[in-house]
Design a protein that fits this description.
Helices cover 69% and strands 0% of the residues. The two termini are 17 Å apart. α1 runs antiparallel to α2. It is mostly helical.
Length: 163
C-alpha cells in the first residue's frame, strides 16, 4: 500500500530546503569574490567592481526567487510549479531591469567594465544553477515519510510475479 505524502514531516532531522539555498548563495558569492580578485589582477579595478556587482546581482535575484519558491512550496505544494514558472519569468525581468538601471545611471562607462559586469551575471547564474543542483542532490530530501513501523514489505503486499 503506497504511503501518502505529508505536508509536514514528523522527522525532526528533515529540513525544508533552505540549507540548499544558503549553500548555493554562499558558493556563488564565494566564487564571485574569486572572480573579482582575478578581474582586478587582469584588467584593473573597473573589471573587479564589474564582476563583483554582476555576481551580487545574480545572487540577490536568484536567492529572492529561490527563497520565495521554497516558501510557497512549503505552504501550498499544489501551487509551487505555477509559482516557480512565474518566478523564473520575474527573475529574467529583474536581471534585465538591473542591467538597464546600471546602464542608465552611467556606471558602466565610469566605474564598471561592461564585459566583466555581464560576465559576472552570466557566471553567477551558471554557478548558482550548478551549486543548487549539486546541493539538492546531496541533501537527499525524501519525497514522503515512511511509516513508523519501517519500510519493509507487509503480508498484504504482492508483486506481479507472486501470483
Amino acid at each position: 500500500m503506497p504511503t501518502k505524502p505529508t505536508m509536514r514531516s514528523a522527522d525532526p532531522h528533515r529540513h525544508s530546503g533552505v540549507r540548499v539555498l544558503v549553500w548555493a548563495a554562499s558558493t556563488t558569492a564565494g566564487l564571485g569574490l574569486v572572480a573579482g580578485a582575478v578581474g582586478g589582477l587582469v584588467s584593473g579595478s573597473a573589471a573587479a567592481l564589474g564582476v563583483l556587482v554582476g555576481a551580487l546581482i545574480a545572487v540577490l535575484v536568484f536567492a529572492f526567487g529561490s527563497f520565495t519558491v521554497n516558501t510557497v512550496a512549503g505552504l501550498m505544494p499544489a501551487a509551487s510549479l505555477l509559482f516557480a514558472l512565474l518566478t523564473y519569468a520575474l527573475q529574467v525581468l529583474l536581471l534585465l531591469v538591473a542591467l538597464v538601471a546600471i546602464e542608465r545611471a552611467g556606471l558602466v562607462e565610469d566605474t564598471l567594465d561592461r564585459v566583466w559586469l555581464v560576465g559576472g551575471i552570466i557566471g553567477g547564474t551558471l554557478v548558482w544553477m550548478v551549486a543548487q543542483v549539486v546541493w539538492t542532490v546531496r541533501a537527499r530530501i525524501p519525497v514522503y515519510d515512511l511509516p513508523t513501523g519501517g519500510a519493509g514489505r507487509t503480508a498484504s503486499t504482492t508483486d506481479a510475479g507472486d501470483r
